[in-house]
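ingest -> validate -> predict -> emit
validate: passed (alphabet ok, no gaps, 127 aa)
predict: started
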Amino acid sequence: VQLQASGGGLVQAGGSLRLSCAASGSTISKYVMGWFRQAPGKEREFVAAMNWSGLSTYYTDSVKGRFTISRDNAKNTVYLQMNSLKPEDTAVYFCATNARAYWSGGYYYSRDEYDYWGQGTLVTVSS
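emit:
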C-alpha cells in the first residue's frame, strides 16, 4: 500500500484545513486508517483513527470536537478535517494503515500497529 498525504499549509489560528490521504496499490475499505503528527523536536503522536468499517472513530483528547476523520472508499481516500486550529496543532501530519483486513486489534493509537506510512504534509498554524 502506498499512501500520499496532501492538503497541509499555513493557516491562522481559528482556521480550518482538510488533509487528504490517497491510497494506491490496495483498496483501503477493509483497513484501519490513522492520522499521526510530529511537531519539531517531539515524538510522533496519535491524532485520529477510523476502524475498517468506518463505524468507529478515535481521537486524541486535544483534537476531540475540532477534528474529524472520514473516508471515501470509492476514491480510496481518507480525510482529516481540522477546524478551530491552534498554534499547538503545528506539525507534520502522517496518514497510516496496517493493511490487515478487518483488523480490530484495538490499539489504534499506537504507532507500532501501523506498517505503512505516507510521506507527511506540513501544517503550520500562526497565532
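The mean pLDDT is 96.
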